[in-house]
Write a structure and sequence with these properties.
The complex is a heterodimer of chains A (about 250) and B (about 270).
Chain A: E1 3-13, E2 18-29, E3 34-38, H1 45-53, E4 60-65, E5 68-69, E6 77-80, H2 92-102, H3 107-120, H4 136-149, E7 154-158, H5 166-183, E8 186-191, H6 194-200, E9 203-207, E10 214-219, H7 231-251
Parallel strand pairs in A: 3-8, 3-9, 6-7, 7-8
Antiparallel strand pairs in A: 1-2, 1-4, 4-5, 9-10
Chain B: H1 2-37, H2 44-55, H3 65-96, H4 98-113, H5 120-127, H6 131-167, H7 172-183, H8 185-209, H9 216-226, H10 229-262
């Protein structure tokens, strides 16, 4: 088992009340899989991702990566956050070299690797730019390159396209897919957008409203690139919409 | 290009208009006060004449207006720079460490509730009369502004960058120097901006109460006895002009060059 989420529960305590974000959730992800986690906004899917990344600890239960329990953030699990986290005071190249240097690569090697991954996402011409000089879509690509460059075991993506306009979004989805196909990375992609999930996923897991539990699991065998208007995909979409609508009603 | 220049011209014209409107309102109020209360409220003309006289070297309370201005500025610079030298490092530490924040922030918040001139009692006990109490009062006001803005800004703005750095395996040293400090630059700058304005304003009040025998604030409060109100008006104009100059010219220049260095441009 590659990634193993075992009976995880997460409760947040504030001074007035406790909120159960996730309840008895178990999940297995195999190596090289592209898993999409779909759920209504605020259902706890980001919390799940944060626990896999090591930013939060489960209240009970365990999360294992290749048999070892996750204790803290580390370079084997890289997250592409919903918000932008490129360092604005560094050039794009230096941003990508940051993680490579920390891995112990020499300046020369990390520069070479950084360049390689910049061209993987088509940003080689922008290596000397600062993040604020790039468009939203380009920044996402740079973050993707930064994440992939240090060769993590697993890539965690937390609604990475939620602040991107529709045209760049389609582009980036293709980019993510092609990166996945070329690198064979394990990806967990969290979203509330059904189309994104249908376009990308090997498997979709639908979460219920808070406290999050697995409501449904769908395996998608359609070949890629997928036509989101094909009959089989539309059938799936109808089912998923229904699931999400129910979760949403429960949430309200 | 032409339309751009026209826009700029129009903006300037509006600025000039607003200054003229202010002067007209001032003139009207002056004459009304003279008529109704029968006391000499300085008119624009009287103040302009006074300004020219003072600037050509006529002494005010024994010293030139330049000396008054220079004394005010040097007190302000001393109070401000000491507050910044202590406040920024403290703000950075409080923003970085949860424990230090919990320990020190309550004290800073207490200091914050006390208006600058109210420090006079402590200032006099500690330093007696002279320059030092005014400098102390400026220090107290700038200090808490710098600490609070730097600490709370650094704490919130850097969280996501620190998380990203942790993920890439950065140790504490790298996180502090390579990530936290650069990320805290913006809050530091806004702390400076707030401290700058606060310090300049309290400088005037401090000179009024602290027994300094020179300065713009001193000159204004002295008009109580001398009834030289036109000179007090000149001092008010200088306070405003120099305050604007510090914030709009000097500080903006520093701010923009720092921003460019760290690769940020301020929105708007």
């Amino acid at each position: 088992m590659f990634l193993d989420v075992q009976n995880v529960m997460k409760i947040f305590h504030s001074s007035e009340k406790s909120i159960t974000a996730i309840k008895n959730l178990s999940l297995h992800v195999s190596k090289g899989e592209l898993l999409c986690i779909l759920g209504p906004i605020g259902c706890g899917k980001s919390t799940l991702l944060n626990m896999i990344a090591g930013f939060e600890k489960p209240t009970s239960g365990r999360i294992l990566l290749e048999g070892r329990e996750i204790e803290e953030p580390g370079p084997d699990r890289i997250m592409v956050f919903q918000e932008e986290t490129l360092f604005p005071w560094m050039t794009i190249l230096n941003n990508i070299m940051f993680g490579l240097r920390l891995k112990g690569l020499s300046d020369e090697e990390s520069k070479r690797e950084a360049r390689r991954f910049l061209s993987l996402v088509g940003l080689e011409r922008f290596s000397t730019f600062r993040p604020h000089e790039l468009s939203g879509g380009m920044k996402r690509k740079a973050e993707l390159a930064r994440a992939l460059a240090i060769n993590p075991k697993i890539l965690l993506m937390d609604e990475p396209l939620s602040s991107i306009d529709a045209v760049s979004r389609a582009n980036l989805l293709r980019e993510i897919l092609s990166v996945w196909e070329r690198t064979g990375k394990t990806i967990i992609y969290v979203t509330h957008n059904i189309d994104e999930a249908l376009y990308l996923a090997d498997r979709i897991i639908v979460l219920t409203a808070r406290p999050a539990r697995i409501k449904r699991e769908i395996r998608i065998d359609e070949s890629r690139p997928r036509d989101l208007l094909s009959n089989s995909i539309i059938d799936l979409k109808r089912d998923l919409l229904e699931d999400l609508a129910q979760s949403h009603v429960l949430a309200e | 290009m032409i339309s751009l220049e026209r826009g700029v011209l129009l903006k300037r014209a509006k600025l000039v208009t607003s200054i003229i409107m202010l002067l007209i309102a001032w003139e009207i109020i002056a004459h009304l006060v003279v008529i109704i209360r029968n006391v000499p409220f300085p008119t624009v003309y009287e103040v302009a004449i006074r300004l020219i006289r003072l600037f050509s070297g006529e002494p005010l309370y024994g010293i030139s207006i330049y000396k008054h201005l220079a004394d005010s500025i040097s007190r302000w610079i001393l109070g401000f720079s000491m507050a910044v030298l202590l406040g920024i490092p403290l703000g950075i530490l409080l923003g970085y460490s949860e424990a230090l924040w919990d320990l020190f922030m309550p004290i800073i918040y207490v200091i914050q509730t006390i208006p600058g001139p109210a420090w006079i009692a402590i200032a006099l006990i500690l330093f007696g009369l002279g320059n030092a109490p005014a400098i102390f009062m400026i220090f107290m006001v700038v200090f808490h502004a710098v600490v609070i803005t730097t600490a709370s800004g650094a704490r919130s703005v850097s969280r996501k960058y620190i998380n990203a750095a942790k993920m890439f395996g950065a140790d504490k040293f790298t996180i502090f120097f390579k990530v936290f400090l650069p990320a805290a630059t913006l809050p530091i700058i806004s702390g400076l901006r707030i401290g700058l304005g606060n310090g300049w304003r309290v400088m005037v009040a401090a000179e009024m109460v602290s027994g300094a025998a020179s300065g713009l604030g001193y000159s204004i409060i002295e008009s109580r006895w001398s009834l030289d109100f036109p000179s007090a008006f000149v001092c008010m104009l200088l306070i405003s002009a120099f305050g604007l100059f510090i914030q709009r010219v000097i500080f903006r220049y520093i701010e923009q060059s720092v921003m460019r260095r760290i690769g940020l441009t301020r929105a708007g």
